Amino acid sequence: MARDFTDLLEHMTPERRQRIERRVRQIRTTPLYQLRRALHLTQAQVAEELGVGQAALSRFERRQDMYLSTLRRFVEAVGGELEVRARFPGGDVVITDFGDEDEAAEAPPPGREEPEPVRKPS
Predict the structure, then answer these.
(1) pLDDT over threshold 50, residue 103
(2) Cα–Cα distance for residue pair 100/102, rounded to 1 Å
């Protein structure tokens, strides 16, 4: 038989309830949780849009560090568009394309030429 969460709380120690309340406050202050709630979307709705389970989305919302591609998918799933902006004293630069992972692995860093292969004299 399923138990009501209120019943579970009543049987927990005060210390355990405080730990749970602190964790709930932490989760509710994460930007992705706040964004989803501000848009009046449930985890189930966003998870369906992303093609993942609700539990996976819950874990995602609590992450402190993630790939930009993952963040972009989340933002697009809730109807937005991710923009990454680098701020410099001389002005801002909007980074719109991060390239393909395979392409990035093959390309030399910006400002550096691919070295010519060393050829043995014949």
Answers:
(1) no
(2) 5
